[in-house]
Amino acid sequence: MESFRWDTCFVTGIPTVDEQHHRLVDIINAFGDLLLRPEGSTGEEMERVFTELADYAAYHFSEEELLMQEHAIDSRHFAHQKKEHAQFLVDVAFMRTGAASNQRGKASELLQYLCNWLAYHILGSDQLLARLVEATQLGMSQEAAFAAHRKEHDPATATLLQAMNRLFEQVSERNRELAELNQTLEARVVERTHALSDANLRLENMAMTDVLTGLPNRRHALLALEREWRRADDHGAPLACMLLDADGFKHINDTQGHDAGDEVLCRRAVQLRHAVRNDDLVCRLGGDEFLIVCIDTPLDGMLQLAEKVRREVAALYVPAGDGGWQGSISVGVAVRSANMRSLEDLLKAADMGVYQAKHLGRNCVATGG
Fold this sequence. Notes:
Blueprint: H1 15-36, H2 43-70, H3 75-100, H4 104-137, H5 142-152, H6 155-207, H7 218-235, E1 239-246, H8 249-256, H9 258-275, E2 281-286, E3 289-295, H10 299-314, E4 317-320, E5 323-326, E6 329-335, H11 343-359, E7 365-367
Parallel strand pairs: 6-7
Antiparallel strand pairs: 1-3, 1-6, 2-3, 4-5
Helix pairs in contact: 1-2, 1-4, 2-3, 3-4, 3-6, 4-5, 8-9, 9-10
């Protein structure tokens, strides 16, 4: 079925222009065939036709404008036709977005627009161009030819073409407004999506962070351990941790108050971060209990690291009320072994190490399990 039926009234008498018009009609009809296919059309097929249409229209318009330059066409008509060409390309670019996304209603609107615009453009602007070119070939000046056209033109036809021109301008303006509105809405959606994403990220960070020390909290620690436990299952990599309990902290908290206890915890958190390696994860589980998760570290390496941490904390003194807290921690070290079935077994072994360190007199490192 032909969406655009060619008729002799569309012939301008300029062979190259008529040939190019025929090609545009063929592309528009191919677009119509895609819409009428019972099985429908794919987005790729639609996009291919749109690309061919836009490319060929741009080529045809440039050829027409070159023709107008060669014949020194009246500047009033030249400017009018260039404006129509440019606006057509803009309108098609706006309208093709919905059509290419397989919205049949949008595609049908675009097809109707193409057929109506081409008929209006050929019968109006291009037929006038043909007469102006013929006048040049007959030796008539462009100004005289343009004036003669306006004088001889049927008033009813002129009025109809003017009405059509205003109609297409209104459609173009509506397309621009819709495009600007869509861009504004899309920008707002993107902006609000980013804001929501940032807010969710902040909430997630808050949910995973100890408020007092700024360290990862218990939830963060357990999630990290679960992740590393799975990695150890997949790759057989060593997984270890150490639990650290502050010796004498309860006495400071009870006698000097919670503010003094909080100061001890914060200073201790800073010291622990400085004492470990970049890949180690220092977390506060709650109270004065801290956990350090270490990946790819065997038992010997863990014992050396735990002793280094203990020494650095032992060198710390935190003034608290009338006295102070002399750094002292009991450290329990645990490394995943073959008989451990879950990360709870690993944590239980580290806790047993803390108990053993307390039993040995505090301020020392011990293993559990």
